[in-house]
Amino acid sequence: MAEIQLHNTLSGKVEPFVPQKAGEVRMYTCGPTVYDYAHIGNFRTFVFQDLLRRFLKLRGLKLNHVMNLTDVDDRIIANAAAAGVGIREYTEKFVQAFFHDCKALSVEAPEHWVRATDNIDSMVKLIERLQKKSFTYDSEGSIYYRISKFPNYGKLSKIDVAGIQAGARVDNDRYEKESARDFALWKAPKPGEHFWDTEIGKGRPGWHIECSAMAMKYLGDTLDIHTGGIDLAFPHHENEIAQSEGATGKPFARYWLHAEHLLVEGEKMSKSLGNFFTLRDLFAKGYKPSALRFALASVPYRKQLNFTFDGLQSAASSVDRLRNFADRLKQTKFPAGQQKGMAARIAKAAGEFDAGLSDDLNTARALAAIFDLLREGNIAIDKGEFRQGDVAAVQKLLAAFDAVFAVMEDNDGEKLRALGYGTADSGPDDAEIEKLVEERNPAKKRRDFATSDRLRKELTDRGILLEDMKDGTVRWKRK
Ligand SMILES: [Zn+2]
């Protein structure tokens, strides 16, 4: 197996990945702010970190992975107050939606989901530690972090801190991206809005302190990997480093991994351009979860991903090809023995698949290894050269592939129904089924497997199972 190499934003280099404790990975991912549905740009990052954790697990590492739910945020508190409900009540709908979306995209649950509202104590304690070391100052009931006290500020994002104005401060969670500012650790209460009454006064935590406190509470002072979208590198992650390292004097995270932006049809996604999509928007249009996951996974995480509907279609057909290939292997009885050279060919694909993912999670390279083998395998099968003795090795590689990419199981219909889509379609009637079966027969006769598989799939997706009989006839039944 190849040595795992990851790009570390901190060093700006691709480095060998070696966890602190052999065999174990402590990883933190900045989760969603639960005041709305997550969009496909968010899910690009969540699919990336899922691929990463799945690959590390495939390589035998034990994961201790924390993802947070930011349920304390300026907008959440203001919206909850405006709606006259508590924070938990206001965010619950979006929390559940996020969990359902993750399930639909086969994004595994981390070992710990943590919520800001459950960890206010840890945040207060961390702020007290920073107070004792003079990293903070008070102003109008809020507590700020004094950036000039932390000489390494800017080391992650390489932002130029020379221009910091002494005492210039910001207490919004979102502020302009170009300049460093003293940021709020703790914010004074606003009239009519929720606050916590604590040892450091009444108020609420800032966004940045949430992640520092929760990451260290569950993973210790130094994490192996911290992931997030590239837009979080500054100021959010820079501020996390300043807070955690200011308090502990130890490195906060050893490897920082950031996923690049997602564009839609070449443009920045925005509500005003009408190219803003949540998962639900796409599922309502009839796109499948597996196709979306494949599309998001297929571009290496450090490259910008240009999401297009053509790309989504071709992702869907790639998934179909994979599933059809797996079905062929499972359902066909090949002649006994092994095809000359095939074992070596499969081993080469397995090596290249592992080398691709080890190469800073180069998913495009890993996929190319699988699809090259798939194409050659299909040709061998078509020519009648493929042998039963090679089936297990190909299946083993496909299983390893799917442990990371998670698109092989034919469960899109089930997932969509669970989200309330696709229930209206009660399936085709008998005449329509017969028509599609008739259409498929000539394709089958001329060994046009692409067409016959596509028609079979079309029927399977609509709940109809086909069985090709030995005498050339076709039986069908409803699932
Ligand atoms: Zn965070």
Explain what the structure shows.
With 479 residues, the chain is α/β, with parallel strands linked by helices. 45% of the residues lie in helices and 17% in strands. The chain contains 15 helices and 18 strands. It has helices at 40-58, 74-83, 87-104, 120-132, 207-219, 233-248, 279-284, 289-298, 309-331, 342-358, 363-382, 391-405, 412-418, 430-445, 449-461, and strands spanning 5-8, 13-16, 24-29, 62-69, 112-115, 136-139, 142-145, 169-170, 182-187, 196-198, 201-205, 223-229, 253-259, 262-264, 267-268, 305-307, 464-468, 474-478. Strands 6, 7, 8, 9, 10 and 11 form a six-stranded mixed beta sheet that branches. Strands 5-4-3-12-13 form a five-stranded parallel beta sheet, sandwiched between helices. A three-stranded mixed beta sheet has the order 15-14-16. Helix 4 crosses helix 5, helix 5 crosses helix 6 (233-248) and helix 10 (342-358) packs parallel to helix 12 (391-405). The longest helix has 23 residues, at 309-331. It is elongated, with a radius of gyration of 26 Å. Residues 30, 211, 236 line the site of zinc ion. Zinc ion is lined by residues 30, 211, 236.
